[in-house]
Amino acid sequence: MSNYFSDLKDKVVVITGSGRGIGKGIAEEFANAGSKLVINDINQETAEATASEFGAKGVETLAIACDISKQEQVQDFFKQIVEKWGKVDVLINNAGITQDTLFLRMKLEQWQRVIDINLTGTFLCTHAAIKYMSKAKSGNIINISSINRLGQAGQANYSASKAGVVGFSKTIAKEFASRSIRCNVIAPGFISTPMTAAMTDKAKEAAISQIPLSRAGEPADIANLALFLASDLSSYITGQTIDINGGLT
């Protein structure tokens, strides 16, 4: 695979929420391509544990804990990256949370925390990274949305945040294309992660029964598209939202 993505070798790739789940799966494929990885999690131990796994395989890594909803933390986060490697080539805004409940039961705090992480966090990380990309007149931003951006019962907060990511990304693509910065969105469907592992077997079976390909996706399915979108193979693609959901939509 790395032969197809040789241009990603030694690129500095920042992946938020990459201590586990989809983010870790994305990091693994960029590691295989020879990229330099910034592993981020809200928990320092989780970030360091994942970074150590890749480091043991000879991958250059940097582990940084950061609450991406906090502007000062985000600014310090990217300052550390640039101090170490001098640039930010690829930003993948993957970190996200859910706090599901039916709308009439949803508290303002549940709404706000999901918006703060999923949408404002994407804004803050992009805002911090793009000033370095603009100076270099080169960069690539990949934002992770969801199939549930289209609406899902019990997820008014999450659906709103993930729909917002799409509109935000299209705007970034238009504003920064002249500086050779591309921005695209990946919208996963039902993916096997620690989050979905917590579901009951009955709930999993019900979800998979709706998928034409009759299986859950894997983090590698998302990672493979991220590699393509970050590489020169997709140099004429920007402002797009690509669904990966086994045919569910």
How would you describe what is shown here?
The model has no long low-confidence stretch (mean pLDDT 95). The chain is α/β, with parallel strands linked by helices and 249 residues long. Helix 1 (21-32) crosses helix 8 and helix 3 packs parallel to helix 4. It has eight helices and seven strands; from the N terminus they run βαβαβαβαβαβαααβ. It has helices spanning 21-32, 44-55, 71-85, 108-136, 156-176, 194-197, 201-209, 219-230, and strands spanning 12-15, 36-41, 61-65, 90-93, 139-144, 181-188, 241-244. Strands 3-2-1-4-5-6-7 form a seven-stranded parallel β-sheet, with helices on both faces.
Distance between the termini: 28 Å
Number of strands: 7
Main β sheet profile: 7 strands, parallel
List the secondary-structure elements in sequence, H or E: EHEHEHEHEHEHHHE
Radius of gyration: 17 Å
Helix content percent band: 40-55%
Count helical runs: 8
Strand order, sheet with most strands: 3-2-1-4-5-6-7
What would you call the structural class?
A: alpha/beta
Shape: globular
Mean pLDDT: 95
Sequence-ordered SSE layout with sheet pairings:
Layout: E1 12-15, H1 21-32, E2 36-41, H2 44-55, E3 61-65, H3 71-85, E4 90-93, H4 108-136, E5 139-144, H5 156-176, E6 181-188, H6 194-197, H7 201-209, H8 219-230, E7 241-244
Parallel strand pairs: 1-2, 1-4, 2-3, 4-5, 5-6, 6-7
Helix pairs in contact: 1-8, 3-4, 4-5
Task: List its traits.
46% helix; 249 residues; 15% strand; globular; alpha/beta; 7-stranded parallel β-sheet
